[in-house]
Write a structure and sequence with these properties.
Low-confidence stretches: 1-50
CATH architecture: 3-Layer(aba) Sandwich
Strand content: 25-35%
CATH superfamily: Mog1/PsbP, alpha/beta/alpha sandwich
Largest sheet: 7 strands, antiparallel
Number of strands: 10
Mean pLDDT: 76
CATH topology: Protein Transport Mog1p, Chain A
Radius of gyration: 15 Å
Order of helices and strands: HEEEEEHEEEEHE
Helix content: 10-25%
Number of domains: 1
Length: 190
């Protein structure tokens, strides 16, 4: 199995594991773990009339509840379980879109706890300021992968599902912020 395929399988397993860990989030304990004061590349609704970046114009990734576009030059590679993988073949960039059934998951703090238990990125990403995606509050996890790539995970709970867009991007921070913003600016509810 080549390195890219192995990585996609790890991401898919981590995304699928998040759903399996939901049982641990239904214990009635306070959720805690709110956002920190760290900055986020998305500071206002990415679907507002004047987004800070140009929306992505590449392929559309469709899920039951929403669609997003990835940048031109990316290709939609495959769907494994509940995860759609897209990749820029000229770099090590990957954008992953997931929609998982998550009955009982009620808020962003629970979602973050579940995702952090299953994420394979080391060191673990940290929760930074929440953002608004498609007019709804969403968590934002940020960090670096072991390869030094920027890692961003955005997610929200809606209609009994945990909806996520996960970015693993190489290159300068400004480039990663632009890619993230361009994709999130295309979020549309179905």
């Amino acid at each position: 199995m080549d390195r890219t395929t192995c990585h996609r399988v790890r991401v898919a397993v981590a995304a699928g594991s998040a759903v399996l860990l939901l049982v641990g989030c239904q214990d009635g304990a306070p959720s805690g773990g709110g956002p920190t004061a760290a900055s986020s590349p998305i500071t206002s609704s990415p679907t507002s009339a004047t987004p800070s970046v140009e929306p992505a114009t590449g392929p559309v990734v469709e899920e039951r509840q929403f669609t997003v576009r990835v940048p031109r030059g990316y290709v939609v590679e495959d769907k494994v379980f509940t995860l759609t993988s897209t990749r820029d073949r000229s770099s090590s960039d990957g954008i992953y879109v997931a929609a998982q059934d998550a009955p009982g998951l009620e808020n962003l703090s629970q979602a973050v706890r579940v995702v952090l238990r299953s994420v394979s990125v080391r060191p673990k990403p940290e929760r930074v300021d929440d953002v608004v995606i498609g007019g709804e509050p969403a968590y934002h996890l940020a960090g670096r992968s072991g390869a030094g790539n920027r890692y961003h995970s955005y997610g929200l709970v809606r209609g009994g599902q945990l909806l996520q867009v996960i970015f693993e991007l190489d290159g300068p921070d400004a480039r990663a912020d632009e890619i993230v913003g361009s994709v999130l600016a295309t979020w549309e509810w179905r």
